[in-house]
Sequence to fold (368 residues):
Amino acid sequence: MSFGFELAGTDGAARAGVLRTAHGDAPTPTFMAVGTAGTVKAMTADAVRATGAKIVLGNTYHLMLRPTAERVARLGGLHKMMDWPGPILTDSGGFQVMSLAKLRKLEEAGVTFRSHLDGSAHFLSPERSTEIQHLLDATVSMVLDECTPHPATYDEAASSMALTHRWAARSRAAFFPREGYGQFGIVQGSTYADLRRESADVLGAMDFEGYAIGGLAVGEGQSMMYEMLEATAPFLPVDKPRYLMGVGTPDDLLGSVARGVDMFDCVMPTRAGRTARAFTSAGVFNLRNARFMDDDAKLDARCACLCCARHTRAYLHHLIRCEEMLGPMLLTMHNLTYYQSLMILARAAILAGRYAAFCAETRAGWVT
Fold:
């Protein structure tokens, strides 16, 4: 099957489509569960599938350290290793260029990291990042970019963006085209609308299979993030998927879909599950709170996941207070199911031409 994106309908700037890949299809808008080290934390692959997820994410930097890309390849690839035959998108290591700034040296050739595990040195260039993702057998590979930190001056943002463009060209040249596989460019430009448009134009000319919007959700705030989406998405190819990296809360997802984004990933639902927080149709609950001690209601009356179907808020509170690992597992399962359900309902609303009403109704329900 060839890699492609089919647009099924729009409602304003909001889009409903289908991402088609060698490893299966993913209806959009879609949320990708984050499986950084080849696993979605606290979840089996069957549990991830049960949430409705169609595509997951892995991380080049973490997998190159352990178990190493070469070992993954010898063992049959990441799909086989993590029991996920569906599409897998791999981050390029670009986010770690920012997040591990104290452990890396940035040069034109690439980035030298000091491992956060043992301090050993590892060099990651656009070519090596692309090679690692090929060894992992990633369905969607990302170009190596410099994720511009926030805040950044205009000159700093422009310089960082230009480096990302040069690395994108090198990543594209190193990509090994295969039927049903794709590579995404990453738009940068910090909080400067003219740089964002320039980046979209430059990367658009490189004809990637899809486009990511990077360098957001790094401290700029929701209103600025939306402003940058409005300055970027209209200048990306209509017939290619658009991926907003590292976002975010349910409210962020709704607002970003309204501005033309198709794909998302974020550690928020899994991390929240491990810290006793649940995203629900009634808002965010902290299951540590004593008010849940005798609450025999299901976590979310509108959710049919295993957590909600079989367990009460009181039981979840008990598990959290006793530090039983089942508590985070059940809350993670629920949170990922909620995110998937939100995207499924958003897609249906777009196709029905009532996306704005859907957003208003959903937000009105968040009363906690």
Q: What stands out?
A: The two ends are 45 Å apart (CA to CA). The mean pLDDT is 97. Residues 296 and 312 are 5 Å apart (CA to CA).
